[in-house]
Write a structure and sequence with these properties.
Blueprint (H helix, E strand, L loop, with lengths): L21 E5 L19 H10 L16 H5 L5 E5 L13 H13 L21 E3 L22 E4 L7 E2 L2 E2 L6 E4 L3 E3 L12 H11 L2 E5 L13 E5 L8 H4 L4 E5 L4 H11 L4 E7 L4 H9 L6 E5 L15 H14 L7 E5 L5 H10 L3 E4 L1 H6 L23 H26 L14 E3 H13 L6
Helix pairs in contact: 3-11, 4-11, 7-8, 9-11
């Protein structure tokens, strides 16, 4: 059995003042000075920490909002002088999809590399849009041998990228045909190209080092040159329609390359195979109105090994008036390839709207082999995902001044936390290998299906908005 995949982490505290969600307002003039004050009994010791924080406060606007929201002190105070409040600065973070709770969770994971725990629990709606309309099966959570990161069973998260033959033809113990090249990475995650919608510093060297430290792959522009040549195994160059060519000596040291979809896609694949026969070539397909059919068409071509499906940053279909969400697009493509009998031969990578580790697992359940992310790594560096982010405007997170070791540490911590949560989720589902999770929709429940089964016979089908 191979060694367990493990990422070395270290605590990386934030550079700026914390922007927490909950704070406690204390009306001191009515305090009875109880000897058994509920503030001293705080299980998270937040009141003592608040006193130390205020004593060393440098920024007067940065008040203490690190309360876990358990409501214990609010409920138990005999005078009723405590009340919970929400930080107004917290509510300004992100947008309708990248909600403040997602950003806060990402910050905590990037700081500690641990799975976040909220004292207030989940207080949102029962169902929502996108991945929130999908629930994973946790029926095996009571089995102690499959207790996630603490269990005794080995749970594999490695995935293979490339074309797989539909069958093996053997002559004795030898294959009669050459096997296609495969790239194996230790978890189903790749770092995508940086988002052009946000003002970014030169983060590519930080992302490169993070990919090397975690063993995954980062997609880089063809103009990028690595800081260390041994990191080329963790870099996949992206070749757009007008991108300059990557030098052959660099291309020969990489394992994966990505090209933009075009009518000449087969010609470009053949040209790359001449330079490096063992390289795996991915085709990037934007999920526009024609993207689904194009992905299905490419999947039927034996020369195409990997298809990278890309939605927008919020996981929605591109350039359409009524966009569908990523999970529905993946399911449609996966099902079509299954019906053609070729799904096991092709690798599907899904990107766009993957904001939490549970989204990674849900995308795989819908039919993807692995996913790509970029904005979560940016948020790990304390980015607020400002809607007004423009070139030349001051960045509240001061991303243009971040330290190299700080950036690598925060990104590495985030990927480690995502890996641990994937193992926890798989352990709760009784799964020991992430490859088996692909397309297993029986491991999940979909709100639209439950609604149809429960109310469809009474009220008919739901009308689109």
């Amino acid at each position: 059995m191979p060694d367990k995949y493990h990422i070395k982490t270290r605590p990386v505290p934030p550079l700026g003042p914390r922007i927490g969600k909950h704070g406690v307002v204390d009306w001191r003039e009515d305090c009875a000075r109880c000897h058994n004050c509920v503030k001293k009994a705080c299980v998270y010791d937040r009141y003592r920490q608040e006193a130390e924080y205020i004593r060393n406060l440098n920024v007067i606007e940065a008040l203490y909002f690190d309360c876990m929201g358990c409501f214990s002190c609010v409920q138990d105070c005999t005078k009723g002088i405590l009340c919970l409040t929400i930080n107004p600065e917290y509510e300004k973070l992100g947008n309708r999809y990248w909600k403040p709770d997602i950003i806060k969770t990402t910050w905590l994971q990037a700081e500690t590399a641990k799975i976040p725990v909220s004292g207030a629990g989940y207080r949102g709606p029962f169902s929502g849009q996108g991945f929130d309309a999908m629930w994973t099966d946790m029926s095996e959570i009571v089995r102690p041998t499959r207790d996630g990161i603490h269990g005794r069973e080995y749970i594999s998260t490695s995935v293979d990228i490339g074309r797989k033959p539909p069958f093996l033809a053997l002559n004795g113990r030898k294959s009669t045909a050459a096997l296609p090249p495969l790239v194996t990475i230790p978890m189903p995650l790749i770092v995508d190209l940086s988002s052009p919608a946000h003002t970014l510093p030169k983060l590519d060297p930080i992302i490169e080092q993070t990919a090397a430290d975690t063993g995954i792959i980062a997609i880089m522009d063809s103009r990028y040159r690595p800081i260390q040549t041994e990191h080329l195994e963790n870099i996949a160059f992206f070749l757009g329609p007008d991108s300059p060519a990557v030098p052959d000596e660099l291309l020969k040291k990489t394992r994966l390359v990505e090209i933009a979809d075009s009518p000449a896609v087969l010609k470009r694949i053949n040209a790359l195979k001449i330079i490096q026969p063992q390289i795996v070539v991915a085709v990037r397909v934007d999920l526009t109105a024609t993207g689904v059919n194009r992905a299905i068409e490419l999947g039927a071509l034996p020369e195409v090994e990997v298809i990278h499906l890309v939605a927008d940053a919020n996981g929605n279909e591109l350039t359409t008036q009524t966009p569908r969400f990523l999970k529905d697009l993946i399911r449609q493509i996966h099902t079509a390839l299954v019906e053609k009998g070729i799904r096991d031969e092709i690798t599907l990578i899904a990107g766009g709207g993957i904001a939490l580790p549970e989204h990674m697992a849900k995308a795989i359940i819908c039919g993807a082999d692995l996913v790509t992310i970029n904005l979560p790594l940016l948020v790990a560096l304390e980015c607020h995902l400002c809607e007004q982010c423009r070139p030349g405007t001051p960045c509240p997170a001061r991303l243009e001044k971040i330290d190299f070791n700080y950036g690598v540490g925060r990104m590495t911590n985030l990927i480690a936390a995502w890996h641990d949560q994937l193992i926890e989720l798989m352990g709760a589902m009784g799964m020991r290998e992430v490859r088996r999770l692909r397309g297993d929709v029986g491991r999940a429940m979909f709100f639209e299906n439950l609604e149809e089964e429960t109310f469809g016979k009474l009220y008919g089908k739901r009308k689109p908005a």
